[in-house]
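Case study 2.
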Amino acid sequence: MTPAVNSAKKAKIQFKLHQYAHDSGHDSYGLEAAEKLMVDVDRVFKTLVVKLDGKQLVVAILPVDCLLSMKNLAKACGGRKAEMADKLEVQRSTGYVLGGVSPLGQKKALKTVIDDSAQQNSTIYVSGGRRGLEIELKAQDLQVLTRAAFAPLKQ
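Prediction:
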């Protein structure tokens, strides 16, 4: 099991695991998950690690078919500027490889913001900590486990 799955088990929340055969040639990890699991793209959420004001790493969780508004994320975090974090920095801080970054079970607990659209679904899907593994859970459970805020994050 991955740290993400262990984190969900330890918290004793209700969740389901979904596995699929990852295709390394696919353009988008998140869209691949939605296609292979036959789930609407608005229920599959990606986990992005962003650098706020050039120093603090934060996590943004939003639907896989949407672009992140750096301005909205910075505002939600009380910062002025946001930019994508370096790949190595992401791996070091989370313990996960790109395409398998889960909001759960990260090595360092980072400030987290979930796009407010997550609240419109009974459950959402997030990475289970490796490519080809998704965790289905309630957005409210994800919020509690990550101590996240809900805010509009889409462009």
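Helices lie at 3-11, 29-37, 70-76, 87-94, 139-146.
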